[in-house]
Amino acid sequence: MESRRLVLIARENLSELLSAVASAVKVDWQPKKEALSGTMCTVGESSFNRVSVPIAAVDAGAEQAIREVMQAHSGANLVAYALKAAHKVSPRLVVFDTDSTFINQEVIDEIAAFAGFKKEVAEITERAMRGELDFNKALAERVLLLKGVSAEVLPEIKRSRLSLSHGASELVESLHARGIFTYLLSGGFSFFTSAFRRDLKLTGDFANELEIVDGRLTGKTLGAIVNRQRKAELLRELATQHGVSIAETVAVGDGANDIDMAVESGMGVAFCAKPALVNAVNAAIFERDLRFVAELAFA
Q1: Side-chain half-sphere exposure of 120, counting CA atoms within 13 A
Q2: Are 295 and 46 in contact (CB under 8 A)?
Q3: Quick check: is 99 catalytic?
Q4: What's the longest Cα–Cα distance across the chain?
Q5: Of 28, 99, 199, 258, which is the active-site residue?
Q6: Looking at residue 131, what is its pLDDT?
Q7: 59 an active-site residue?
């Protein structure tokens, strides 16, 4: 068991949240006093209460108890939380999932709309992100339905159907100002991740490549699939490449395909995520604003 710090960001008074945590993990706190030690943080035009409190002797049972309390209080009051190392570690490498994390949409669903299979593909996507299906098989099944779609629709989809998650640009700008490396590690497609990389001047991107022959999608991908295992491998490789320790990494995602990289990283963040990821990591953001990543990472 090790000592940790619990960072909470909420709209209102934190004493009720702290009382719930104290009851769940049996810590000797004075919640009202601890709440008064918090400070205000500003995200965009809104202000929030933030507090960082120590918790001694945290084991796996305590981690799960804290997750359950956080999920029970998410939404109305709690905006974000992180159970962090007792000593402060500043991140030097931040990696993001793309679909439904860095952007608001699932790209493959939007391509499928052009093929007339959006409903079918979206259902498979949802089950895959919940961890109910093998990711590689689910991807192959969905991509096959895209066979024959003109490659000319890809730029139009990027232009008219995809949007950055709220706060993405501001977060990236803030991270770059601190000299932090930023990457997209995506189970989606390289045409789109490379475009977003160029738009925001990210350090790099890794994703699956759609095979195109005679100007049309073939229904196949090229090369190794960027699945949950590959994302974790990439995180380790990038950390080594940039001389960054794993403790200095942050991984942000929303689904089962992000579990391995999130657990591997110094701080894995579940961003408006599926339960499979929320229950695997010790940090979560419950409001769709990526700027809260920085509020947790640098607390």
Answers
A1: 12
A2: no
A3: yes
A4: 68
A5: 99
A6: 87
A7: no
Which residue type, as a one-letter code, is found at position 74? S
Sign of CA dihedral 17, 19, 24, 29: positive
Whether the CB-CB separation of 247 and 85 falls below 8 Å is answered with yes
Decide if pLDDT at 35 tops 80: no
Query: Which listed residue (97, 205, 254, 258) is catalytic?
Result: 97
Q: How many beta carbons lie within 10 A of that of residue 16, not counting itself?
A: 16
262 & 287 share domain: yes
| One-letter amino acid of 70 | M
Write down the pLDDT at residue 26.
Answer: 80
Which domain covers residue 115, as residue numbers?
89-299
Indicate the length of the chain as a whole number.
Answer: 299
> Model's pTM, two decimal places?
0.94
Q: Which residues contact 22 (CB under 8 A, 6 or more apart)?
A: 28, 29, 31
Last residue of a domain, one of 51, 66, 88: 88
CATH of the domain at 82: 3.30.70.1710
Tell me the pLDDT tens digit for each residue of 112-163.
988 888 888 888 888 888 889 899 999 999 999 999 999 999 999 999 999 9
Work out the end-to-end distance of the chain between its first and last CA atoms, rounded to an integer number of angstroms. 22
249-253 and 181-189 strand pairing: unpaired
Q: Which two tokens stand for residue 23?
A: 């009851």
The pLDDT tens digits of the residues spanning 260-292 come to 999 999 999 999 999 999 999 999 999 999 999
For every residue of 226-268, DSSP letters joined together read: --HHHHHHHHHHHHHHTT--GGGEEEEE-SGGGHHHHHHSSEE
